[in-house]
Amino acid sequence: QVQLVESGGGLVQAGGSLRLSCAASGRTFNYYKMGWFRQAPGKEREFVAQIIWSIGTTYYADSTKGRFTISRDNARNTVYLEMNSLKPEDTAVYSCAVARTPGKYDYWGQGTQVTVSS
Question: Rounded to an integer, what is the distance from CA 47 to the centroid of its chain?
């Protein structure tokens, strides 16, 4: 079993920045990818960004491209999400996830709340 713990969420004004962290612990394996997702009240969970663990290739949702940056620290088994130019529509619970294969994500964190005020 893998445990994922997110941190760094909070309340920020529009235009501000936050940095989320997700630390993985427990059973270790070669991660294929780690990603960030978010879910706003009354909405479906949506993809935010992901990083291919071994080579660092990144992918972003169109809504976050250019404003968010995903990165990882291999030694700490941690993935980060730097969020800049935040908008009220970025308000959501942000969760990280890890996958062993190119397919579905296998383990999920509990999430951290991000609230952007206008």
Answer: 9
State the average pLDDT for the chain. Answer: 95
Cβ proximity of 26 and 9 under 8 Å: no
Tokens encoding 39: 């879910």
What whole-number distance in Å separates Cα of residue 55 and Cα of residue 8?
25
Is residue 38 within 8 A of residue 92, CB to CB? The reply is yes
Tokens of 80: 């980060």
pLDDT at residue number 28: 65
Comparing CA positions, the residue from 99, 98, 94 lying closest to residue 111 is 94
Q: What is the pLDDT of residues 94-103, one digit of tens each?
A: 999 999 999 9
- Give the span between the Cα atoms of 107 and 77, in whole angstroms: 14
What one-letter code names the amino acid at 34? M
